[in-house]
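Quiz preparation item.
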């Protein structure tokens, strides 16, 4: 899986960081970002729930094809 956060859409609600704190955090400006090395979610089962929790749908999860 590959996780992307659209920084132009993110409002910094922090729901992703609350739901999956091993994958998401907030930067100095309060916007969501991935922890280092977590662009694939690190196998955390809460990643998809964190994406659903985003009130502005700024998180996209892409599953590998093929």
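Solution:
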């Amino acid at each position: 899986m590959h996780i992307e956060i659209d920084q132009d859409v993110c409002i910094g609600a922090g729901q992703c960081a609350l739901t999956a704190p091993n994958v998401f955090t907030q930067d100095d400006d309060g916007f969501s970002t991935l922890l280092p090395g977590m662009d694939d979610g690190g196998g955390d089962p809460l990643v998809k729930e964190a994406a659903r929790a985003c009130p502005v749908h700024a998180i996209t999860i892409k599953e590998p094809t093929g």
